[in-house]
Amino acid sequence: MGCSRLRNKKKNALAKYQDEYLYLEDVQDQLKSFVSPEDSINQVKNIINTWLKYQTLLGAADKNLGDSAPYFNQLLEDYKNSLYIYHYESQQIAKNLDTVVTDSLIKKYYDLNAGNFELKRNIVKIWYAKFPKAFVQVKEVLPYFKNANPNSLGYVNEFCTQYASNHFVSNTEWLYFDEIGKEIPLDPLYDQLKFIQNNKYKEFTDDNYLYVLSIIDYKVKNNVSPLEMVYPQIKQMIINERKVSLLNKNQGDLLKKAIEKGDAKIL
């Protein structure tokens, strides 16, 4: 029966390289999307050609390894073991890791590690909009930009959505000033810090547009980042610390059990 099965399998072989065979059942899943027989035949030819190229390349590499073969075998063994461990630990993380991080815990972490969250660039809260220069109705909204009253936020956003070419209007979200600086026609030699500190409201124009900028709040680099800006980062840091702790505990528990069973011992 064994010889009969081997003959039947070889009968379904599509290609051969030395002792390696490519069988019809190996490629059937790749052919399900091909409806016409002609498409299937062409695809099978491509699969066979790709497989033969791969096998001949692998054979040449194996033949030319020479004295390096043990080294590569060890690399493969190490990679296989690392892959096993990675998938096992991923399952442990998915099953046991607590990913709920409360606001109070994030605030506590921030307060204890504030020195680690130093600003590297200047940040601002702004009302900004870019209007076509010919748009005369812009006069209706300019007073709101000058006052930047939070109660006007909804109206200003609605107005800008309808008429502005680009806008960002928020009393809560921080931006790096570099990002908004790219949007407005600033003097290339301007001093960013002085500009931020001395321009609560500013209008710019070029040939085609009017740019309106109101700076609601700012923080300069080398100061501590505001909590809301590093909130997602801190949350991920806490989760990562929990992940490391979970994996270390799991490794310790496994070793302890192995020692108790006599499977692991120091000789």
If you had to describe this structure to a student in words, what would you say it looks like?
The protein is an alpha+beta fold and 267 residues long. It has three domains: 65 residues; 53 residues; 101 residues. Helices cover 54% and strands 15% of the residues. The strands form two sheets. Strands 3, 4, 5, 6 and 7 form a five-stranded antiparallel sheet that branches. It has a two-stranded antiparallel ribbon with strand order 1-2. Strand 1 and strand 2 form a beta hairpin. The chain is extended. 10% of the residues are buried.
Helix content: 40-55%
Structural class: alpha+beta
Average pLDDT metric: 90
- Report Rg: 33 Å
Number of strands: 7
Q: What gross morphology would you assign?
A: extended
Which regions are unreliable across 5 or more consecutive residues at pLDDT < 50?
Answer: 1-7
Q: What proportion strand?
A: 15-25%
Terminal Cα span: 49 Å
The total domain count is 3
Number of helices: 10
Order of helices and strands: HEEHHHHEHHEEHHEEH
Main sheet, how many strands, which sense, barrel?
5 strands, antiparallel
Layout: helices, strands, pairs:
Layout: H1 2-11, E1 13-17, E2 20-23, H2 24-27, H3 37-64, H4 69-96, H5 103-112, E3 123-132, H6 142-147, H7 153-163, E4 166-169, E5 175-176, H8 177-181, H9 192-198, E6 201-205, E7 209-219, H10 227-261
Helix pairs in contact: 5-10
